[in-house]
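dude i think i finally got it to work??
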Amino acid sequence: MVVAAHRVAVIGGDGRLRPGLVEAPEVVVFKSPRDGGNGDARRLEAALRAGSFGTLIVLTRWNSHSTTRKLRRLCKKLGVDIVVMR
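look at this
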């Protein structure tokens, strides 16, 4: 069983990760609102609130400023580690 603290969520792009970007037992990729509509972003927010992830990686190249800002605030409020990268 994978503990939520070891689960990593990634939002951005079309769902493909660069090899070696994340080394964790479980990585779940959510499409950015630009690539997948708002559905994945909403599912990510719900999963973060439910405590499903210990870390969030935001790939800013594909996310808007407002999406990134919203996720930063949510992660800060919930105590979830966040990494913002291009």
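The chain has three helices and four strands.
im so relieved honestly
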